[in-house]
Fold:
Amino acid sequence: MRPDTSRTLQGIAINLLTNVIAEVKTPFGQQTVGIAASLAMWIAEETERGADRLVVENGVTREILADGLALAGTARAAVEAAAATPAAPNFRISSLQSENDSLRRGLIALHAAVESNPSADAQSMNERIWAELIESTRRRQFQARIG
Amino acid sequence: MEAPLARYLEANLPAENVRVTNLFRIPGGASRETWMFDATWSGDGEEHSQAFVVRKDPPASLLETDREAEYGFYSAFWNSGVPVPRMRWLEPDASIIGGPFFIMDRILGCESNTRAPQAPPYLAVQPEMARNMYDILGIIANFEWRGTAIERVAEPPAAETAWEKELAHWEGIINVQELSPQPLMRAAIRWLRANPPPPAQRVGVVHGDYRVGNFLYREDGSIHGIVDWEMAHLGDPVEDLAWSLNESWQWAKDGRPGGIVDRETAITLWERASGLRADPAAVLWWEVFSHVKCQGIWITGARSFQEGRTNELILPMVAYSLINAQDQALLRTLGRIA
Structure:
């Protein structure tokens, strides 16, 4: 759809902040309009990047689960089940998110297993998981700064 | 809501000719709706007027908290060294104004905005405000709660296991409320269990949300009301100190707690006021815990909205703006990122 969804949402946010908010009489109403504008800005970003973010993260998480399976110890069944999560059948955000949830449940199980394992391989995997978790927060970081 | 409130006051004051005016909802109050109103009435042959606040349970919120406990903590501190508004009535009947509620007197002439201390006239009194903030927290920490309403509404933990009780409570909330797995918070919970803090120096009152934004202040930096006691409980007073340091309330985005005081000064002020030691291991433990607790609050709001139990936009706003930010703050506290 053109203009792009993200640009349209940005326009909605700007209109709320410049044209609408001044017309609202109560502080509570003004706060609600301000929040709606903030959300529109963030959703604009997420609409553009969300599918890509999830596809990338799902791929990275699958690799970690596959490489960490031998180190999973008593969590092996949980990690194996997560690693066997079918790929999302389409590129809808809800499908990709469902895949992501399943994979990240396995990541939690693997993380718990390797952090209590003193072997060098396990500790190396532990650090790799931490690095991915740090990266995952960067993927989710919004560029729009509001408030 | 004016008419049912007027009828309620008429029955409970008791009074005649009650008039309710200037009713409005204030921004914030993400866990309970907060409404202000003025009332006038006749009674004892005289005309009376009073500004009130109503805290009303919403259909869903950031947090499901115990109204009676909040009321009990407020009541216990009335006329103590901790300034609180006077409690009037606790009403469990949801049919009167559309939800259970309680009513308290309104403290007039104060500011509570989180950003106001960053600008004149409050900017110049940040040191006084910080000193008052931690002086009052010291009084809360040493408050003799036995024999007060708190004894009825809160269970005291053992000094050795106060941490365990709080951690189990908030882990339970995350278990129930998370919409998606939280790998960073799960790592934090494992760390907390593996590195327990020293026992509480005393089992005292913990406000549970003590920070800039939850007290009423004036232009001279004086504080006239501590509010939002909905997460108050008995436990380790270091919990409140660590909570006040959390990055989520560093409103000036400059690393200073509350945007009004540097970390070291905050800790020194608290130690002086409370007479307790801020053991660095205990402070670190409760800071990591504070991220877990914050995340429990944010994801509870996210689920409420996702499931359509409320359309309050503050809930997705908190989720979008704070869930990932809280994860990053945790990473900083653990020294994983700068």
Notes: Chain A has five helices and no strands. Residues 5-140 of chain A form one domain. Chain A has a mean pLDDT of 96.
